[in-house]
Write the structure tokens for this entry.
Amino acid sequence: MRFTIKNGILLPSNTIEDSRPISQIPALPQPPLNQDYHFNGNLQQLLTGKQLLLNDIPFPLNEIQSHYENGYVTYRHGIIYKGKQPACARCGNKDQQWFAYYPCARCGETCLYCRQCIMMGRISGCTPLIGWNGPVPDTIHPEKISQWQGTLSKGQSEASNRVVGAIQENKELLVWAVCGAGKTEVLFAGIEAALAAKKRICIATPRTDVVLELTPRLKAAFPEITVASLYGGSEDRHLYAPLTIATTHQLLRFYHAFDALILDEVDAFPYTVEESLQHAAIQARNPASAMIYLTATPNEKWQRECRSGKRAFTTIPARFHRHPLPVPEFIWCGNWQKRLQKNRMPVNVLRWINERIQANKQALVFFPHISLMETALPILRQFAQTIEAVHAEDPDRKEKVQKMRAKEIPLLLTTTILERGVTFPNIDVAVIGAEDTIFTESALVQIAGRAGRSKDHPKGKITFFHYGKTDEMLKAKRQIIEMNREGLKRGLLDC
Ligand SMILES: [Zn+2]
Ligand SMILES: [Zn+2]
């Protein structure tokens, strides 16, 4: 779309002679707010705290323009130029190779666009990002906001108090909670405090699965609060809600929206690999706001910042059931890949697996790569034909996990796809080839975190079979031992 400036305001027009793509208009005027203007409440609900494309807005352009002229709607550049260097205002992309040109029907020129965030709709040189500048929608909360009936462990309750404090004071806080500590419950008091103070709060997580799992839990805990559940293709897209749960990708549509943002699994794919999502998280926050990071496995830099006092953090070093985390054992298994090429496997690995089958103990067995896992599968089926293997592209992934839960599968081979998010009550865990670079400290701590989850079966054996110990293996083990030591010291463990 092309704009021109007339009487100090932007006018969309493709016909006026001096009209230009919006990125070629350096300063975008913003008309003052006309208090007497009757704004559209639906548009207000849709746009508050957002940055949307025209395509995302189911209202005619002349209505949007009229709100702009009366100061209620803002137009921002989709692509910002610093000199000749373009940057995408939505995802923060500055990398030349992630921009491309195309013949654009909207402005009639060869238009530069951002390829990095194209899955959220195309941002090009003629794209305005549309937001809200008027009053925010009124939210009326019930007297009793939280209906959550559960209780917190001592460790959870200490962390919960810190979360409340950070939200009230608009601070940043890292909650470093071991796998199985029960981190969701730790958020409830903080969410309640935010809502009570009329703050808008969002929980963002990299995985759609987690959004789907958390949504009913939040709705149950806050039954009278509107909860927006956002992921690719979700129906709540246009819903204004004081409490939002979203995939990190969806944050790209928000701008200065949240007074408190909770980022779950900050270490997990794709957040760490996609700078755009970090950019999105920063943009989605109000300038004065709280930021809570949740993780079981902060990266090395963050761990260092915690130790040196540069980062505010709190730990939950013990699980809800008050038993220590099982500590991994390292077993050398020789050049296992070479053996696999000859359709054989190390004897100690075979023994480990056979022992589980004989004892009727379920196990997860991790492999670094799909092809190696698929070579191993027929070899291991000598012990039980019902052994299965699963990976990210497996169309039967959900069914297999379900069968594992129903105890119809004795042993499930897997890639790192099951390193987090899945809970089976009573399993042992093995990693074959723990020396592989795919098994980072964080991945190994998560994998070890699959064992001993339930209070009826708090123990579980974790074995890292390797062809040479790595630093990552040692760091993972050290981290688990440290957490157990701290849990004991703080009186969060029973043994
Ligand atoms: Zn972009
Ligand atoms: Zn264009």
